[in-house]
Amino acid sequence: MTHSSKKIVINTGGGDAPGLNAVIRAVVVSAITRGWECYGIRDGYTGLLNPETLPEQPGLIPLTLERVRGITHIGGTILGTTNRGNPLNFPVVGADGQIREVDRTDEIIEAFRRHGFDALVAIGGDGSLTIANVLAKKGLPVIGVPKTIDNDLDQTVVTFGFDSAVAFATDCVDRLHSTAEAHSRVMVVEVMGRYAGWIALYAGVASTADAILIPEIPYDLEKVAAKIREREARGRHFSIIVVAEGAKPVGGTVSIIGKEIGRQERLGGAGQFVAESLAALTGKETRSVVLGHLVRGGTPTAFDRLVSLRFGAAAIRGVEAGQFGTMVALDPPDVKYVPLELATHHMKLVPLDSDVIQTGRDLGICFGD
After folding, report:
1. How far apart are CA 92 and CA 100, in angstroms?
2. What is the pLDDT at residue 1?
3. Would you tell me which of 70, 145, 180, 289 could form a disulfide with 238, CB atoms 3.0–4.6 Å apart?
4. 231 neighbors 184 (Cβ within 8 angstroms)
């Protein structure tokens, strides 16, 4: 079978996630097998828009078989990534010294054409694929690959990186059980996930947490305190509470650290607030642990490796078939193509009738409601 020659470019944007390098390898190997060339953009779109800010590094990296050998199991991304400088709202300093945001997507398209690329494989989460969708609408041949530990992209059963994050968070909570019991403490564990509770829910249920607080269910801390008192009455003098960073009390708001121009707002502080409040309500010694970026790093699980490799290979099959303006998505047992517009217009939250939530309730886990 013959394949017309193509020049593929790949970028990775937003937060890193286990499995990025596996996708890159699958894209490159699948493309080169067809006789095509592959390149990678450094640090999101920086290598195209501002290559001068990458001293001693090329803005575009030729991706050969040798370059991607042995990277499937490695965390992070060999291309680098960034969650700064969104090209839809790129911060620039005007002549008056004021910072304003401008749309630089036309510059990306111009650079894409200047380098003679035939297709872009954009690997990212909701922010990165929203950019990809805008580029696709402007005529750029794009195929997206869903990456986020948060699992909040619509139209796919799962995003790669999620399983690895859940596995690590579960291991951490498992370890905290022994120290919590030894000291008769309440341990509050804050995990990432932004405005969706997938990581907190899955890791909390898997690690037999006593309470799980997620953004989808505003919580009443008196209900959580009642759960702790109930355990005390049964001779269980410790409790484990898993809190999603986007969880909020009934009638309250999400805890935000701050927001920089051109970036998403930074969430944080939910776990500390819950810990301090529960200490006051119960009189129990309480500690908070923030897993933070630890859940992003490290080796991808076997599941994430396989999904990432499947997504990368499917992206190249999509390029070959002209399936542009789409995102590859897992629809077990298959990988399919869905419009980028559908994948990015709606955040996938945990359904309140989720079987995992129902399972948690059957196991006696408190959700603060």
Report:
1. 6
2. 44
3. 180
4. no
Q: What burial letters (b/e) apply to 270-279, b meaning 16+ CB within 10 Å?
A: bbebbbebbb
Per DSSP, the residues of 189-248 read: EEE--TT--HHHHHHHHHTT-SEEE-TTS-B-HHHHHHHHHHHHHTT---EEEEEETT--
With CA atoms as reference, report the closest residue to 201 among 132, 254, 150, 277: 150
Instruction: Tell which residue, 33, 134, 155, 38, has the closest CA to residue 88.
Output: 134
Average pLDDT of the chain to the nearest whole number = 93
User: Scanning the structure block, which residue is given the tokens 């970036």?
Assistant: 263
Q: Which residues have CB under 8 Å from 249's CB, separation 6+?
A: 218, 219, 220, 221
Tens-digit pLDDT profile for residues 143-167: 999 999 999 999 999 999 999 999 9
Q: With a threshold of 0.70, does the pTM exceed it? A: yes
Is 6 in contact with 119 (CB distance < 8 Å)? yes
Let me know: does 299 contact 74? Beta carbons within 8 Å: yes
Length reported for the chain: 369
Q: Is 118 a catalytic residue?
A: no
Q: What is the enclosing helix (H) or strand (E) of 11?
A: strand 7-12
> Is-contact 166 267, C-beta < 8 A?
no
Per annotation, catalytic residue among 16, 150, 163, 304: 150
342 torsion bin: left (phi>0), alpha (psi -120 to 50), beta (else): alpha
Q: How far is CA 189 from the centre of its chain?
A: 19
Q: What's the distance, Cα to Cα, between the start and end of the chain in Å?
A: 59
